[in-house]
Specification:
This protein has 193 residues and is mainly beta. It has no helices and 25 strands. The model has no long low-confidence stretch (mean pLDDT 96).
């Protein structure tokens, strides 16, 4: 069967997966049944993608990441090395809780740093930035920058991954792209030209 994606010979891909054109799956990774993976994704070495996970287009997953059932990622999400998602709040070896997995949604363009842990049931907003080693225990707003354990918000990030500094009028400009943002009671949004 001709595939429109690349999988290293050591990778395992279970039956019933949908994998988009141009996606690359590297050494010792396991994509489990009924996953949907978009086009042009890059799945690094030793990654586990559990059943029914959904990944959008251009998702970059670094080495040693575990993406468990209940997780969905929109387009352009970055998952840093060794970050992990959970899917049960109160796991016990002797108790089967497969029917009570909690869902976690990662919005378009969000970045999750190396060794971060995302506790299930808490969504990550679009273009949010989760610092390395952070432990996310609540929902993260779009464009928010969060760090620490437990993760707390310390600022805002642009779509280019630059820290935003808002003036007295609630306006900021991304140093890299020149794009403009506004801060209101609802949070941050990008101003359209």
């Amino acid at each position: 069967m001709d595939n429109n994606y690349f999988a290293h010979e050591s990778a395992f891909i279970d039956e019933g997966c949908q994998i988009g054109k141009g996606t690359k799956i590297w050494h010792f990774s396991h994509v489990m049944t009924r996953c949907i993976i978009g086009e042009n994704c890059n799945i690094g070495q030793n990654v586990v993608i559990s059943p029914e996970v959904i990944l959008g287009k251009n998702v970059k997953i670094q080495n040693n990441v575990s993406v468990y059932t209940g997780v969905t990622c929109d387009d352009d999400v970055f998952l840093g090395p060794s970050c992990v998602f959970t899917n049960v709040n109160n796991p016990r070896s002797a108790i089967n809780r497969k029917g009570s997995y909690l869902k976690t949604h990662v919005g378009k363009g969000a970045s999750i740093g190396a060794n971060a842990t995302i506790v299930c049931g808490h969504d990550i907003g679009e273009y949010a930035f989760i610092g390395a080693g952070a432990v996310v225990t609540k929902t993260v707003k779009p464009y928010a920058l969060v760090v620490g354990n437990p993760a707390t918000q310390v600022g805002w990030m642009s779509e280019y991954g630059q820290r935003l500094e808002f003036d007295a009028h609630g306006k900021a400009t991304c140093e890299e792209s020149g794009e403009h943002y506004i801060l209101s009671e609802k949070g941050v949004s990008k101003l359209l030209e």
